Structure formats: C-alpha cells, structure tokens
Amino acid sequence: MRLRLFLTFSIVTLTTLLVLGFVIQSNTQTAITTFAQQGGFLAADRIVSALGDYYQENGSWTGVESVISSTLHAGSGTGQGQGLGGQGIGQQNRGNTGAMYGQGLIGQITLTDQDGVVLYSENPNLTGTLSSDIMQNAIAIEADQQVVGYIVPASTVLDLTDIIRENLSDTLNQSLLPTAVIASAVALLLALVSATVLMRPVRQLTGAASKLAEGDLSQRVPVSGGKELEQLGQTFNQMASSLEQAQTTRKAMTADIAHELRTPLSVQRANLEALQDGVYPLTLENLEPIIQQNILLNQLVEDLRTLALTDAEGLSLIRSETNPEEFFHQIYENFSSHFKARQIALTFTPVGDLSRCPKIEIDRSRITQVVNNLLQNAYRHTPDGGRVEMSLVCEARQVTLTIHDSGQGIPGESLPMIFERFYRADQSRARDYGGAGLGLTIARRLTEAHHGTLQAANHPAGGAIFTLALPTMEAV
To answer: What digits encode the pLDDT tens for the residues 427-443?
Structure first.
C-alpha cells in the first residue's frame, strides 16, 4: 500500500513537471511570435497609428508613397531621426534602399489596401495582390473602426523571430532541466514521507484487525491521521467494543441460563429420588413441587424463545384495533382480587376525556404480557397495605400508561441495568418468587416491537414508576 501511494505521488509529480515544461515552452514561443509579428520589433503601433491618421485625414491612400518615403529617409545619417517607425538611428541598411535599422524599425515597409493589393513596398518582389501565406502575418490599419489597409512585416523580422525563439528555447531547456530534477527529487522525498505517515494508521488498524480476527477483542487503535482515518479508527474501536461487550454478555447469559436451569432441575431430581427411595410417599401433594418446577422450566424456555425471536426480529405479532381505555381497564379488573389478598390498593385512573382517545393497533396478548409483568413486579415490591396506581393518558399520537408502586424503589446502581437479561435488583427476593430476571427484558422488547417505549424511574414521592408509551393508529 505504501509503495502504491509512493508511485502515485511520483507519477503525479512527474506528470505535473512535464505538463508545466510543455506549457512554458509553448506559451513562450507563442508570445515571442506574437510580440515580433505585432510590432515588438517593428514598433508597428506607431506606424499603424500614423498611417491610420493619414487615411482618416485624406479618405484614401493617394499620395501615401511620398509621405512614407520622405518619412523613412528623414533620419538617414548618423543622427537622431523621427519617422513613422518612431525615434531611431537613421543609418541605412547597406544594399536595401529604405530599409531602416533603429529603435523600433527593422526591415522593409510594405503597405496594402484592405484586399491585400500592394500600394507601396520597398521590396521589389512584393507586387500585385499578396498571397494568403504572406498576409497571415500582416498588421491591420483601421480608420473609423474599419480596416483600410495592412502593414506587412519583412521576412527578415520573421527570420529573426525564429532565431530568438530557438535561442530562448535552448535557454529555457537548460534552466528547466536542473529545476525539474531538483523539484522531482524534493517531491519524491516528500511523497515517501507522506506515504509513510499516511500508512501508519492503516498499518496499526490492519494489525489490530488481525488480532481481533484471532479472538483478541481487547484491541483498540489510536484515533489519528485525518478526518477519514479518524472516522475509520473510531468505527473500528466501536466495533471492537461491541464485539467485546457481546462476548461478555453471551458468556454471562450462558452462565445465567445454566444457573436458572440447574435450580429447578435439581429440585425435580431431589424430589424424584425421594419418591423413588420411598422417603416421600407417591401422593399428589408430593408431586406438586415437581410440577411447579416443571412449570418454571417451561416458562424459562418460553422466555428465552421470546427473547431469541425479538433479537432476530422474527417475532410475529397479531395486531388488532384496540380501545386503550377498555383494554387496560380489563387488565386492572383481572388483577384487583390478586392485590386485595395482601390489602394492596390497586387503582386505575384515566386522565382527561378518554371518550376521544385514539385507538391503538396492538397484539393484545403480547401487550397484556407486558402489563402483567409490570403489575407482578409492582406486587412483589409493594409491602402489605401499600398501593399501586395505574394512570392512563391519551394524546393524539401516543397512549401512555404509568404504574407507580409504594415500595422502596429501585436502587440507583441498579436503575441503568434494570432491563438487562437475568438482572435482579434483589437477588434473594426475586429467587423466592421464582423469577429468572427476564420479565422486564421481555417487556421492553415486546414494547419496542410495537414501536413503543418502556422506561423505569424512581418516583419523587417514593417507589418505582414504569412508563409504557404506545403509538396510536394516527401516528403509525
């Protein structure tokens, strides 16, 4: 991976240098050609301006020959001269009549009209209508924003342009080559360092993942290396934590299940052996403890099956449209006599006008199982002569049932774990009632399967309060 990153950086660097060199060469040559052809050596801007003014004043090119000729030869000699070409040394080029060398003027002047017909030329070879090859280097002369003629550069100017372009190209190549070598070396060194730095978190993550695959779920990686790598590290750490917690939970659950199964099985075996050895006579009364333990075993197995279905989201719900006030009041009626046996006052209080309470769509047997579990839990933890209050509140999108008992409440350290599997806030007391510590876990899972919530808290006035919230049909 590091080699791939290094090669990628190298290719990008070298490609950038090659493109940069090509662009510099191309733009330089284009600039030289444009500079030369557009008056960089001819000072064509002054010549074109003067000829444009002449045409503007006269309306034609008539008589321009004498004006050009007299102006070009006005600076002959070694003194300073003023002419169309600008201020320059007026020494004539030997063998070329009228060909001026000086500041702003090199070569022979050729003037054509807008159609390319030669009007004046110091080059005897240029007559008539000039070809498109010659005219492609011509400089337009404008008057009243219209092209009225052209100045054609001499071939010596273009030849000089080629010489300058070649020399400058060689100079640029000599300068670019060491620059490119140095820049490439620095860039490749930085690429190597960058690849090493970037790959460090990846190597750490790879090593941790390998150990994690071997079963070491304690592996964590430092979170560093940029936003994406930090996010990857955090995700890995969260995954490792989840796997470690799941493994711990699985081990604890396996031990809890074995413990819960061992107790009723041991009781059954002891009673059966006593009956077999003749210690107890074979009577219905002596068979009763065995039957009770068998019922506990069946209930435990059914609870574990329900949890497994909710974990796998395979629990099937038979939903039906239900009036919440009638449904919860019926459960209250079923438990009233049970609570009276211990003189526990069980009350059911609808809050507000329940005649307009929206209906809920639930699996009646499953929600009955939830509420039964909550009421049985309240029954166990409420002292004789205490009270348990059921309150129902209907809203447009939610129906809320609260169950508040007058017991001692839930210990603070137990409150966060009250819905965990096999957890008992009071181990000895729960065992007396035959609970396996799965009731509240199942109750929450069944509630969540109905897209509702189940919360536990300690009431300010004392005792525990459980809040069951279910969505109405309007909210679904």
So the answer is: 544 444 445 578 888 89
